[in-house]
Amino acid sequence: MGAANLSQQQPVTHRWPSSNCWFGRPYGPPIAFVLHSESGGESGTVAEWLSSSSQLSAHYRASVTGRLDCWIDPGDRAWSNGIVEPGSRWPIMAEACGIDPELNPNHVTVSCEAEDLGDRHRPISDLQYHAVLSAAREAKNRYPDSLRFLARHSDISPQSRPECPGEQWNSSGRFEALAEELGLRVVSS
Ligand SMILES: [Zn+2]
Questions:
Q1: pLDDT value of position 119
Q2: Could you tell me if residue 2 is inside a domain?
Q3: Which residues make Cβ contacts (< 8 Å) with residue 153, sequence separation at least 6?
């Protein structure tokens, strides 16, 4: 890395075609970029992702070392955050964007898994932060008008996914910083 300014630097994005998605966006362009924590890390995740039988599905994955993989094109729909539960903030985001709050969020979101090696308190490295930022920027550049929110999986599914993403994104201020840098709104608690 040397003295390179990380915020100026675009990480190389590795693209892998996955069929764990629905193709196209018949319900309109995405309104939110959704951040997840990916536990497990070393448990053969790449193999799982590449397996067509796997149900794992997200657009991007940012590793702790700053590697960015794109598994699903943002023009298609991943399956990673479709369950709206009591206490969900999804209806607030949907209504703000003129989307039927009953619509499955997977139809109008772009998702990114942030590797955490199974430790939700593991600090976010600058390299990983910038990989997530780069993914979100790519999505924002593609959908500059419709993409308005940065969401946590826990915003959509607060009962079953209260720690997705982990505390290291919330208490560190990294999540808020990401939203600010991208010019995206968050639904505050
Ligand atoms: Zn998640």
A1: 84
A2: no
A3: 34, 35, 36, 37, 80, 81, 111, 161, 164, 165
* Radius of gyration of the chain from its Cα atoms, rounded to whole angstroms: 15
In a domain? residue 89: yes
Quote the strand ranges of 2-63, DSSP E. 13-15, 32-38, 60-62
Question: Looking at residue 47, which CATH number applies to its domain?
Answer: 3.40.80.10
Gap from CA of 39 to ligand 1 centroid (Å): 9
> How close is the Cα of 161 to the center of ligand 1, in Å?
6
Residues 76 and 25: beta-carbon distance below 8 Å: yes
Does a structural domain hold residue 3?
Answer: no
Residue 43 pLDDT > 50, yes or no? no
Lowest mean pLDDT across 5-9, 109-113, 137-141: 5-9
For residue 30, the enclosing domain spans: 10-182
What are the φ/ψ torsions at residue 3 (nearest 5 degrees)?
-95, 15
Sign of CA dihedral 52, 55, 60, 65: negative
pLDDT in tens, 115-153: 988 888 889 999 999 999 999 999 999 999 999 999 999
- Give distance in angstroms: CA of 4 to centre of ligand 1: 32
For residue 6, how many other CB atoms are within 10 A of its CB?
A: 14
> Is 103 among the domain residues?
yes
How far is Cα 131 from Cα 146, in angstroms, rounded to an integer? 22
